[in-house]
Input
Amino acid sequence: MTRRTIQIDLNRVEGDLDFQLELEDNKIVDARCIGSLYRGFEQILVSRKPKDSLVITPRICGICGTAQLNAAVLALEHIGQIPVPPTAIRIRNLCLMAETVQSDLRQSFMFFTADFCHSKYIHRPFYEKARTAFLPFKGWVHRGALEHSRHVVEIIALFGGQWPHSSYMLPGGVTTPANSRHIIDSLSILNKLTRWFEQTIIGTDLDAWLAMQSADEFFTWLTAKDAHADSAIGLFTLMSRDIGLQHVGFGTPHMISYGAYDDPDDAGTFPPHRKHLFRAGFLNGDTGDIEPFEQAEITEHVRYSWFQPYQGGRHPFQGQTIPDYQPHSDRYTWCKAPRYQNKVVQTGPLADALIDGEPLIRSLYQAEGGNAWLRQFARLHRTARLLHKMRETLHELAAQPNEPHMISPDEKEIPDGEGFGLVTAARGALGHWVQITDGVISRYQVVTPTAWNASPKDSEGRHGHWESSLIGLTVEDPDDPVEIGHIIRSHDPCLVCTVHLLDTGKRITVWP
Amino acid sequence: MGTRHIVCFGNELHGDDGFGTRIYAELRRLTWPEDVEVFNAGIAGLNALRFLEDCSQAILVDALANFGNVGEVCLLRPEDLADRPEQLTGHGLGIPYLLEALKVIREPLPDILIVGVEIAALKLFSPGLSDKTEQAVAKTVQLIRGLLSE
Output
């Protein structure tokens, strides 16, 4: 038996994610997901005025700044019990959807599918098609994604003045009304993107795609026409399944979703009780039941993190984020280990769709489980759903042109108290927990989607989701472990939110 | 004549990686012809594509690795980066990636020049330039002024 350790640099966006893997006879027996960047946003916010969070937290991430802003404003509205008009909720939703659509298209076709062009697959029948479609800057899908994904966030710029790092959501609403010019410009951007999505990505019209309800229907559709099999999602599916991605990368069976997009028809209800357009919940992997989500069940552990130690897990309202770098201990990351009901969970578009009860994803999950292919497929299916929902939202805004976009709060300042804002970012469940004392922020805790997925071991020694999705995997060539890239990228790593690179030992870059 | 853009890249938190940002600060203090605009792209990655649209000429400013002696100011063309796609900077999506992306979205390309200084090494979370890189700032500003005075 041979045992070796390899270290892998995986992230194409920022170069932030490292994995250390222990292999025995090419089988992964232990995994450590390493984040070595302490960002300190939670400390930066302490002692500041509450509304400073609306400027500072969108800087947490250059990809999901709208989601950070939305979580921050919801937390303040929770504390102050501040009402928001339906139009403001629609504008917030529209912008958050736009940001998610861009992220999903880029993750799928600029990062995930590029791996099919790896030289390992040169003898696979799909290889030439993969290069023609997915090769960076050359493939027709890659080029199309690059061009079309960049315009959708212009919708955020119309309503928010800029993207990324915008601050246009304020307690009580948004800064800009939905005038007819903004709506027409947004529809123009959306129409162009939707046409490309239909022609290139799904090879059919959006309504026909969204009408599919089951795994059988999908696989029948896939082989019914060349246009389906040769669409981007067809190629991605056939290539993924040719190399067996439907059999790997399951990770933890437990999933959470905070629910996505506040329901504008329920604007009269204050968060966190306001309904969502896509439901919140906890998918208990032991029973298969979807249980109501309760944020009080969230804790964060630091046993294997470079933070000042505490026992067990703590809810974010009791959370503590004091850096304590211990490079020569068994601690290995700047990520905390969030747990729900003391369970390791995963979050993201697969979890969101299953918990929402989306029939196609649920049917595919029942057939084969939560594998790497389905996780990525669920992301693209979400794009189809969001393009549809964005159009619906714009039409609703157009139908009510003179509705207010802001209800100015009675009080100028946010009162002392505590609150939280929970949203669904592109990568899954994002939460901000805030406490205000004597008029300033006394505690601010952010739990990002990547913190859930990339978490290290907890106080009981249980691996995080990404780590457990790799343990047990057999790697054909440890010097070029492309299988690991497929699995980790199916989770859409965004380590801007959580980690950085650690420069130790041998480093292997999966791509190129 | 179209507009001319100077686009500066870098992360001022990471030692010499902040060279482009430092040059941006210097350039902003100067008076420029009406057709010249100066941008700080920071670590915008693909979002920096916006700065390369609607211009006839672009000068990109960044820290360099493996192009000369430490502290040396270099003037490069995009083809000089062609065989080393990701060595230019510490950013995952650096200028070579951006230029490849630009070819996809824009035709014809603006005239592009890259101005940079060879740096010793990135120092994570150590704001401020090293002595040799700092000494290259004045020369770099002078070079850019010269390029745009033609």
Remarks:
- Residues 131-149 of chain B form the longest helix (19 residues).
- The mean pLDDT of chain B is 86.
- Helices of chain B lie at 19-28, 95-105, 131-149.
- Residues 4-149 of chain B form a domain with the Rossmann fold fold (CATH 3.40.50.1450).
